[in-house]
Specification:
alpha+beta; Immunoglobulin-like; 4 domains; six-stranded mixed sheet; six-stranded antiparallel sheet; 8 helices
C-alpha cells in the first residue's frame, strides 16, 4: 500500500478553459501511514499521445507542501495557475493533444504516489493571443511573442513574417544524390556477384542485380523533377499569403514555368491535404501512421501543347475549411497541411512537389496583418501586377466544410470607355473563355474585347454582396447578380454592379429580368462563369 493516496478535483468540476483563464482546484491527500513528504509537486503540462510515441512539456510547476503526515490524516491543498498560450487541445484519429494537472508526493524510500486529471484548452474565437503550436513552435518568428496580443505586435504589421513553405522536392540536389545512390548499388551488386558466382554460377547474376535495381528506382525518384525540368524549364511554386493560413480563409497557389523544349501536358493537378502523422517505436521498429483529415484534388490545366519559350502561369484560389485544425508539431507527432503539385508529361518523367504550410488561428492572423482578405489581395497584386483574382460569386453561401478551389485568372485592368458595337457575340466570347486552358489565353481574350460593351437581358438567379476578393475594379461594396443571359441555354454569368445601385440590385428576386450593358473582365473557373462589370 502507498504511504498516501492523492486525488485532484477542479473547482465547479470545470474542465474546459480558454487561453488566459485560471485553472482552479484542490489536491486531497489521504495519509495511510506516518510519512515525510519532501515535496508535494503540482504540474500543469500538455501531452501528445495516441498511436505515436509520446511527447510532452511541463508549463507550470509548484510545490504545495513539505512536511510530515500521520496515519489517517487528510489534508486539502488548493491550487490555481493561468492557462499558458497553447498548444490547443486536439482529439483526432491517431493524435491527441491533451492538458493535464498532475501531482506527485516525493516520499523518501518509497514509491512516490501520484494522480493526474485532464482538461481541455481552447482559444476564444476573437482572441488574438499568439500561441504555441507544439514542442518546436512552428513559427520561430513568433516564439518570443507568445502570450502577447497579436494586434499589439506593431512590427509585424509593417514587416511581414516570411515563413517559407517546406518543399519536399529534392530536384536541386537530386542528380548528385542519385549518382551516389547508383554508385552504392553498383558496388553492392559487384560484391554480391563475386561472392555468389562460385556457388551459383551464372544464376548469381539474378541476385547480384537486385541492389542495383533497387537503387536505380531510388535514383529515378531523385532525378524525376530534374528530368522533367529539361522540358518544362525551372518550375516555381508560390503560396500566398506567404506567412500563415487561417481556417475558413482563402489562399492562392501559383505555378510558373517556361518550356525549354517542345512538349505537351496531359494535366496539371494539385491536392490540398490535412493529415495526422505519428511515429511509433524506435530504430528499425519505427512505424508511421497517417490519417487524412481533409483532402481535395483540383485541376489547374487540362491537356495542352507547349511551345518553346512560352511562359506558363497557372493559378488557383482555395479556401480552407472553417473547422480546419491548426498545425501542430512535436517529437513524432504532427498535424500538418500540404499542397502537392503534379505535372503529368506524356512519355516523360512527371514533375511532383509537395509544400507544407502553417495553419494558424484566424484572429491571430488578422491581428498581425490587419484584414486578412485585404492582406491576401495585396499579395496577389504582388504576383499579378494590377490584376485581381476571380473566385466564386456564391462562396459566402457554401457549406462551412466545403473547399472552394479552382484555377483562377487575372482580370483585366480598370474600366475603359466602351464601344456600343462589336463583331463578336456574347455567346461566342463566353465559349472562347470556357475552352481556354491557360491564364495567358484568357488574358488575350480580355484584351481583344476590353472596350466591348455587351448588351443583353439577364434572368436573375440570385443576388449577393460582392466581397473584397471577388470585386472587379470599381465594384467593391456593390452587389453581384448571377443569372442566365436570355437566349443562352445552360450559360450563367456573374455581373457586378456599382455600390451606388445597391438599393435597386438588392430588390431583385429570382426570375426577374433586367437589361444589362457590361464589360467581360474575368472568369470564375470553379463555376465556369464569366465575370462582368456592369456599366452605369
Amino acid at each position: 500500500m502507498a504511504k498516501c493516496d492523492l486525488s485532484i478535483e477542479f473547482d465547479g468540476n470545470i474542465r474546459e478553459y480558454a487561453i488566459g483563464d485560471i485553472v482552479r482546484g484542490r489536491v486531497t491527500v489521504q495519509a495511510n501511514s506516518n510519512c515525510t513528504c519532501n515535496g508535494l509537486i503540482l504540474t500543469g503540462l500538455w501531452r501528445a499521445h495516441g498511436h505515436g510515441n509520446r511527447a510532452s512539456e511541463d508549463c507550470h510547476e509548484e510545490i504545495l507542501f513539505r512536511g510530515d503526515w500521520t496515519a489517517g490524516q487528510k489534508e486539502t491543498f488548493p491550487f490555481h495557475f493561468e492557462v499558458p498560450p497553447g498548444p490547443l487541445s486536439f482529439h483526432g484519429h491517431y493524435l491527441n493533444v491533451d492538458w493535464f494537472v498532475g501531482v506527485t508526493a516525493d516520499i523518501p524510500w518509497a514509491l512516490d504516489p501520484s494522480a493526474e486529471e485532464d482538461f481541455i484548452v481552447f482559444q476564444e474565437k476573437d482572441d488574438d493571443t499568439i500561441i504555441a503550436l507544439g514542442e518546436f513552435g512552428l513559427v520561430p518568428e513568433l516564439d518570443k511573442h507568445l502570450g502577447l496580443s497579436a494586434s499589439s505586435v506593431d512590427t509585424f504589421k509593417t514587416h511581414r513574417i516570411e515563413v517559407v513553405s517546406n518543399s519536399q522536392s529534392l530536384s536541386g540536389m537530386g542528380p548528385l544524390i542519385a549518382g551516389i545512390v547508383l554508385a552504392v548499388g553498383l558496388l553492392f551488386s559487384c560484391i554480391f556477384g563475386s561472392v555468389l558466382i562460385s556457388d551459383f554460377g551464372p544464376f548469381a547474376l539474378l541476385f547480384a542485380v537486385l541492389p542495383l535495381a533497387m537503387t536505380s528506382m531510388v535514383a529515378f525518384f531523385l532525378v524525376r523533377n530534374f528530368l522533367a525540368e529539361k522540358k518544362l524549364g525551372k518550375v516555381e511554386v508560390k503560396l500566398q499569403p506567404s506567412a500563415l493560413f487561417a481556417p475558413g480563409r482563402r489562399g492562392d497557389l501559383e505555378v510558373k514555368f517556361c518550356p525549354t523544349a517542345a512538349a505537351s501536358l496531359n494535366k496539371v493537378t494539385a491536392s490540398l491535404k490535412g493529415q495526422e502523422r505519428v511515429i511509433r517505436g524506435s530504430g528499425s521498429n519505427r512505424t508511421t501512421h497517417t490519417h487524412v483529415i481533409f483532402e481535395e484534388d483540383f485541376t489547374l490545366c487540362e491537356a495542352r501543347a507547349l511551345s518553346v519559350g512560352e511562359p506558363v502561369t497557372l493559378q488557383a484560389n482555395f479556401k480552407l475549411p472553417d473547422n480546419a485544425p491548426i498545425s501542430f508539431k512535436a517529437s513524432d507527432n504532427f498535424l500538418e497541411w500540404t499542397i502537392a503539385i503534379h505535372i503529368d508529361i506524356p512519355s516523360w518523367p512527371d514533375w511532383n512537389e509537395s509544400h507544407t504550410f502553417v495553419v494558424y488561428p484566424a484572429a491571430i492572423v488578422d491581428g498581425l496583418f490587419g484584414d486578412f482578405e485585404d492582406y491576401s489581395q495585396d499579395n496577389i497584386k504582388d504576383i499579378m501586377g494590377s490584376s485581381k483574382p476571380a473566385e466564386s460569386a456564391q462562396a459566402s453561401t457554401a457549406s462551412p466544410d466545403a473547399l472552394a478551389m479552382a484555377p483562377i485568372v487575372a482580370v483585366s485592368s480598370p474600366e475603359v470607355e466602351t464601344s456600343a458595337s462589336s463583331d463578336a457575340s456574347l455567346a461566342s466570347v463566353l465559349e472562347e473563355l470556357k475552352n481556354a486552358s491557360f491564364t495567358s489565353d484568357r488574358e488575350k481574350i480580355y484584351g481583344q474585347h476590353e472596350s466591348t460593351s455587351f448588351s443583353f437581358d439577364l434572368k436573375v438567379e440570385r443576388v449577393s454582396e460582392t466581397s473584397g476578393m471577388d470585386a472587379l475594379a470599381g465594384r467593391s461594396g456593390g452587389q453581384t447578380v448571377v443569372g442566365q443571359p436570355v437566349g443562352l441555354e445552360g450559360v450563367t454569368v456573374a455581373v457586378q454592379f456599382d455600390a451606388s445601385l445597391n438599393e435597386e440590385t438588392k430588390s431583385l428576386q429570382e426570375g426577374d429580368e433586367l437589361a444589362v450593358a457590361a464589360l467581360i473582365q474575368g472568369w470564375n473557373a470553379l463555376e465556369r462563369q464569366a465575370l462582368l462589370s456592369a456599366q452605369i
